[in-house]
Specification:
This protein is mainly β. It has no helices and eleven strands. Strands 2, 4, 5, 6, 9, 10 and 11 form a seven-stranded mixed beta sheet that branches. A four-stranded antiparallel beta sheet has the order 1-3-8-7, with no helix packed on it. It is globular, with a radius of gyration of 14 Å.
Length: 118
């Protein structure tokens, strides 16, 4: 059974930090590209960060570049999103996504809420 489970969300003040985790199970993790998306209330889902199998050259949206860091531990089937210098506009539900174009598989987590507010 495939599972993708995010954790680590919560309420944080502007300027603060959070680290999201996403643990995957039920499939072979390492070949999958792992993505973090977010969706703010009333807005479309946005791709925030991408990490291929080795995560040698992660990519970020312009809105988070320089503040967020994506990483992965293939031995633990886990991908992380370290979020620093958080802003109120970072408030959203953050989703973990595992994608393999070769295998034509695309898995989503249930999301974790991040709220940045004073």
């Amino acid at each position: 059974q495939v599972q993708v489970v995010e954790s680590g969300g919560g309420l944080v003040q502007p300027g603060g930090s959070l680290r999201l985790s996403c643990v995957a199970s039920g499939f072979t993790f390492s070949p999958y590209t792992m993505n973090w998306y977010r969706q703010a209330l009333g807005k479309e889902r946005e791709l925030v960060a991408t990490c291929t199998s080795a995560c040698a050259n992660p990519t970020y949206s312009d809105s988070v570049k320089g503040r967020f860091i994506i990483s992965r531990d293939n031995a633990k089937n886990t991908v992380y999103l370290q979020m620093n210098s958080l802003k109120p506009e970072d408030t959203a539900v953050y989703y973990c996504n595992a994608r393999s174009i070769v295998l034509r598989k695309n898995y989503w987590g249930q999301g974790t809420q991040v709220t940045v507010s004073s």
